[in-house]
Design brief:
alpha/beta, Rossmann fold, 2 domains, 6-stranded mixed beta sheet, 9 helices, 26% strand, globular, binds adenosine-5'-triphosphate, binds magnesium ion
């Protein structure tokens, strides 16, 4: 498989605290990769470093053959890195449809602006995405009126509208009901293999069912990385989470 992301020796410090410590992470095109570890392990910080929200204090990142270490989130998004956050981030006063349409704007072609007459170019694909995510009936509602689970789905629709080659998902199932979690799992499982996924998730049953490779992080360091069947019996899992976890 072709390499999509290669992070080498990534480090991030807050004062004297090293929260990401010389991390190497490789993600192939289309791969489903999980990042697991206890609270404070540095998972969200690592996603920030990959998405460009934070700059590393050491190491480098190549994405799709381009060294993006020194670039910000916008150029990385244009190259194909999409992100959903630990807390859903949507525009609350815009309609659900317009949230997705705005996210699709960079792909609408030259001369597009919002909410100009080219809006239709982004509204149609946005409506299709909402349909796929089961949000079509809420298209006209302000996003701020959605339930937590629906906001999660909307945020994924927004990320997909940016046509990512890598989707960074930070605890997408947190706070979701059992039925919303089921829907989300189906959605992630059905993503086309043109999209690679880096999933941060505490629920190991979801991790094992959704991903090809699992990386275990503790205190900012990679303890182990491998297929789920290997990781679930690896000593690193107990080392990271304590005895009794599988
Ligand atoms: N802005 C900040 N300033 C100082 N320390 C921070 C900051 N952001 C995060 N940290 C610390 O960095 C460490 C890693 O945090 P991070 O949020 O990446 O962990 P996490 O693995 O995502 O945890 P969780 O599972 O709770 O989401 C923690 O010890 C946290 O307290
Ligand atoms: Mg986190």
């Amino acid at each position: 498989m072709t390499e999509l992301l290669a992070a080498e020796g990534l480090s991030r410090r807050y004062g004297s605290l090293t929260v990401v410590d010389r991390v190497d992470l490789r993600i192939a095109d289309g791969q489903r990769h999980a990042l697991i570890g206890p609270n404070g392990a540095g998972k969200s910080t690592l996603l920030d470093l990959i998405g460009g929200a934070q700059r590393p204090d050491g190491g480098r990142i190549r994405f799709a053959g381009v060294d993006v270490t020194a670039t910000g989130p916008a150029p990385r998004a244009r190259l194909g890195i999409g992100r959903i956050h630990q807390r859903p981030a949507v525009w609350p006063s815009l309609s659900v449809l317009d949230n997705v349409a705005v996210a699709a704007l960079p792909h609408a072609g030259r001369g597009s602006w919002w909410p100009g007459r080219y809006g239709r170019r982004v509204r149609r694909p946005a409506a299709e995405l909402l349909d796929r995510l089961g949000l079509a009936e809420h298209a006209a509602r302000p996003a701020g009126h959605l339930s937590h689970g629906q906001r999660r789905q909307l945020e994924i629709a927004m990320a997909l509208a940016g046509r990512p080659r890598l989707l960074l998902l930070d605890e997408p199932a947190a706070g979701l009901s059992a039925s919303d979690t089921q829907r989300l799992v189906g959605l992630i499982a059905e993503l086309p293999r043109t999209v690679a996924v880096l999933l941060v998730e505490h629920r190991l049953d979801l991790v094992y069912s959704l991903t090809d490779v699992v990386t275990v992080l503790r205190d900012g360091r990679v303890l182990a990385s491998g297929p789920p069947a290997e990781i679930r019996v690896a000593p690193a899992l107990q080392q990271a989470f304590g005895a009794g976890v599988s």
